Amino acid sequence: MSIEELSGSELGTKDFWEKSYEREIRNYKDNGDVGEIWFDQDSQDRVISWILKQEDIDLNHSVIDLGCGNGMLLLELGAEGFTSLTGVDYSPKAVELANNIAKDNKVKIKYSVLDLLDTESAKEFGEFDIVHDKGTYDAISLNPDSPKEKREAYIQSVSNLLKKDGTFIITSCNWVEDELVSAFEGRFRKSGHIPTPTFKFGGKVGSAVTSLIFKKI
Ligand SMILES: C[S@@+](CC[C@H](N)C(=O)[O-])C[C@H]1O[C@@H](n2cnc3c(N)ncnc32)[C@H](O)[C@@H]1O
Question: For 10-216, CATH number?
Fold first, then answer.
């Protein structure tokens, strides 16, 4: 399946994210508002319930959240008892915000600045049992400059960060299931999906977000 690239948008640029997290740091300091949970709280809750339902899940499994933003998913996993939590984002301001929130909630999470397009740094970063992405592959796909190459670098980084038998969970609002499977094929195979709400329009059924589970080939 050939993939048609998305039209570029400011959401695909680091400048956009740095500015929005700078604003969110101020909001958090002034009002205690943690900021946006992308694709809403329900998308995050569905991922967390899916993880908790897995028979072989172990609270010591290492989890990395790619493009963690404010880190809310990791914070919830910490509340569920997970002990090895890491969040990375290429925006230093996102890492600052996430660190502030984790500290205030007394949850131990390791946050680092990491650009997922830098495949070598991703290789040196270590390997994880669970690699999670909500909205980050989407943001990378919106880069106005060479999005195909950027998507491919990201997929290489995910492969570098995932243990051999690990699980990659991705939630996207820009790509449908077939497009995600096609983009990741060769390195990953789809092993499941997390059901998301569907809507019907003109006789066709669609979803606003897609959550898929992949294993490394
Ligand atoms: C749509 S937001 C999602 C934030 C968070 N995952 C959530 O669900 O609330 C996309 C995130 O990806 C980060 N991001 C975009 N490109 C990145 C890259 N190349 N490396 C690391 N993080 C990136 C942005 O800074 C932003 O925090």
Answer: 3.40.50.150
CA torsion, ordered 26, 85, 77, 210, to nearest 10 deg: 80
Ligand 1 centroid to residue 66 C-alpha, Å:
7
Cα angle 23, 29, 33 (rounded to 5 degrees) comes to: 75
The SS3 call for residue 6 is coil
Per-residue pLDDT tens over the stretch 148-176? 999 999 999 999 999 999 999 999 999 99
CA of 127 to the centre of ligand 1 (A): 19
Alpha-carbon gap, residue 184 to 169, rounded angstroms:
12
Phi, psi of 30 (to 5 degrees): -80, -40
Determine contact, residues 109/83, Cβ cutoff 8 Å: no
Pocket probe for ligand 1: among 99, 136, 155, 173, the residue whose CB has the most ligand atoms within 8 Å is 136
What strands, in cross-sheet order, belong to the sheet with 210-216? 110-113, 84-89, 62-66, 128-134, 162-172, 210-216, 188-194
User: Could you count the other beta carbons within 10 Å of the beta carbon of residue 141?
Assistant: 24
Q: pLDDT, tens digit, for every residue of 181-217? A: 999 999 999 999 999 887 776 777 667 899 999 999 9
Whole-number Å distance, alpha carbon 166 to ligand 1 midpoint, is: 21
Strands (DSSP E) found in the chain: 62-66, 84-89, 110-113, 128-134, 162-172, 188-194, 198-201, 204-207, 210-216
